[in-house]
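User: Can you recover a sequence for this backbone? Please restate the input before giving your answer.

Assistant: Of course. Working from this structure:
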């Protein structure tokens, strides 16, 4: 049996696979994992925001503080979408209050869709061009413009 045509077809198939891999873009949204460590803890902030976004089927609840207290609730709009603009506006207001805060905890219900979760993450971590500028002091005491809202996203219950 002549295997030459079969080998030609396999090599052409491999060639097309290798060339098409350039067209596939893999996107990644970074998320930190809580780490348990035996080293000395960093100096704690006396009054951290300790923000938590709880994503439920019909609403998003924003809580703050070590003993969580509800800051706001955002219901789904008439089109069935979350009120992400309201959430973003409230987070910008909280960021102005504490411009050095970088972390936020997202607690999604188990049945929240991937696309909806990504939209929530985007509204939590990105400052929009229409938002007023927020400044914080750097180590030299100079004012530096804040580029992101809350860039360190932690998930609390992905396995539940």
């Amino acid at each position: 049996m002549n295997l030459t045509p079969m080998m030609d077809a396999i090599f052409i198939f491999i060639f097309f696979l290798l060339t098409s891999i350039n067209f596939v873009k893999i996107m990644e949204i970074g998320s930190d994992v809580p780490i348990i460590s035996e080293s000395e803890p960093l100096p704690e902030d006396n009054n951290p925001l300790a923000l938590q976004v709880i994503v439920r089927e019909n609403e998003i609840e924003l809580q703050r503080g070590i003993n969580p207290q509800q800051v706001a609730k955002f219901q789904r709009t008439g089109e069935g979408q979350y009120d992400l603009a309201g959430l973003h506006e409230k987070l910008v207001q909280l960021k102005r209050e504490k411009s050095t805060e970088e972390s936020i905890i997202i607690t999604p219900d188990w049945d929240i869709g991937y696309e909806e979760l990504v939209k929530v993450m985007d509204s939590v971590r990105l400052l929009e061009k229409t938002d007023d500028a927020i400044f914080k002091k750097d180590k030299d005491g100079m004012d530096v413009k804040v580029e992101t809202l809350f860039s360190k996203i932690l998930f609390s219950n992905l396995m539940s």
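That completes the design. Strands lie at 51-55, 59-64, 69-75, 103-108, 135-137, 143-145, 152-155.
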